[in-house]
Amino acid sequence: QVQLVESGGGLVQAGGSLRLSCAASGRTFSNYAMGWFLQAPGKERQFVAAISWRGSNTYYKDSVKGRFTISRDNAKNTVYLQMNSLKPEDTAVYYCAAKTGAPFYAYYTNVSQYDYWGQGTQVSVSS
Predict the structure, then answer these.
(1) Is 80 strand, coil or helix?
(2) Does residue 87 sit in helix, strand or coil?
């Protein structure tokens, strides 16, 4: 079974940056569309960013456009989320997810569309 492991979370001051990584096991990572989601206390899991399996198409939640960048390195079976200009309201657990059998151009924004999930990494932004 595909395993996803997030890393790179932590505590940062407002205005700072973090780079999250999601390392995947398995040989089919390059054929998977990937996404990042967040879940704040007491709230539903929410879409943040998505990338197609070839990396040519990306899509973002409106509130992070211009601040966050999703990318992938298929040779390393890793997807990244670069987070700049962090705000306290970005505080949440961040999860990566993989969608199997995706067309090369496709991206996905709904929790129910994804097949595999990591365990999450905590991001805390203080003022």
Answers:
(1) strand
(2) coil
| CA atoms in the 13 A half-sphere facing the CB of 120 | 13
**Which SS3 state, helix, strand or coil, does residue 111 take?**
helix
What is the per-residue pLDDT across 61-112, written as a single tens digit (0 to 9) for each?
999 999 999 999 988 889 999 999 999 999 999 999 999 888 889 999 999 9
**Residue 63: φ, ψ to 5°:** -70, -15
CB-based burial, 52-70: b 16+ in 10 Å, e otherwise? bbebeeebbbeebeeebbb
Per 3-state DSSP, the chain is made up of helix, strand and coil in percentages (nearest 5) of 10, 45, 40
Three state DSSP letters for 34-79: EEEEEECCCCCCEEEEEECCCCCCEEECHHHCCCEEEEEEHHHCEE
Measured between alpha carbons, how far is 25 from 19 in angstroms, rounded to an integer? Answer: 20
The token duo for 103 is 């067309």
